[in-house]
Amino acid sequence: MAYKIPESVLVVIHTPDLQVLLIRRADAAEEFWQSVTGSKDSLGEDLAATAVREVAEETGLQAAAPGCLLRDWGLENVYAIYPQWQHRYAPGVWHNTEHVFGLQLPRALPVVLNPREHTAYAWMHWREAADRCFSPSNAEAILWLPRFISR
């Protein structure tokens, strides 16, 4: 079994008017809404490439499409891996480092979800999105959004 690399991205997908895309996880027992997240596929994978790949895999959106702007916010979160996902990582790996990106779209766009990973999506005002997130680091990243918006 190939273990997950404990380095990931969190991509806050948003519009210029501060609408944020959240997706609901399929493998969580409760309402688990989040932004796009995902681990590097290899140690050498560039973080921006990880963000672009994860956005496409989880939403069908293309980060390099005209009018889109992917930006590394220069924020990192180090957190304990949730017990229910610990088995995905090598023995003795207890923490993950998450790098925060923003992806500004020209407007709220329809999303194509991978049903094995997510069951629903919603565009919502940034404050509502922060309140809806299960993960504290995801909620905090969304609260930073007004500082990184490109109008």
Structure, explained:
The chain is an alpha+beta fold and 151 residues long. The protein has a single domain, classed as Alpha-Beta Complex (Nucleoside Triphosphate Pyrophosphohydrolase). Helix content is 22%, strand content 34%. It is built from 3 helices and 7 strands; from the N terminus they run ββββαβββαα. A 4-stranded mixed beta sheet has the order 4-1-6-5. A 3-stranded antiparallel beta sheet has the order 3-2-7. α2 packs antiparallel against α3. The longest helix is centred in the middle third of the chain and has 13 residues.
User: Which CATH architecture is right?
Assistant: Alpha-Beta Complex
Please give the CATH class.
Alpha Beta
CATH level 4 superfamily: Nucleoside Triphosphate Pyrophosphohydrolase
Mean pLDDT: 93
Instruction: Kindly name the structural category.
Output: alpha+beta
Described by strand count, sense and barrel closure, the largest sheet is: 4 strands, mixed
Q: What is the string of SSEs from the N terminus onward? A: EEEEHEEEHH
Proportion of β residues?
25-35%
Helix content: 10-25%
Which fold name fills CATH's third level, the topology? Answer: Nucleoside Triphosphate Pyrophosphohydrolase
**Helix tally?**
3
Q: Rough shape? A: globular
Question: How many beta-strand segments?
Answer: 7
Radius of gyration: 15 Å
Q: Uncertain spans, ≥5 residues at pLDDT below 50? A: none
How many distinct domains? Answer: 1
Give the strand line-up of the largest sheet.
4-1-6-5
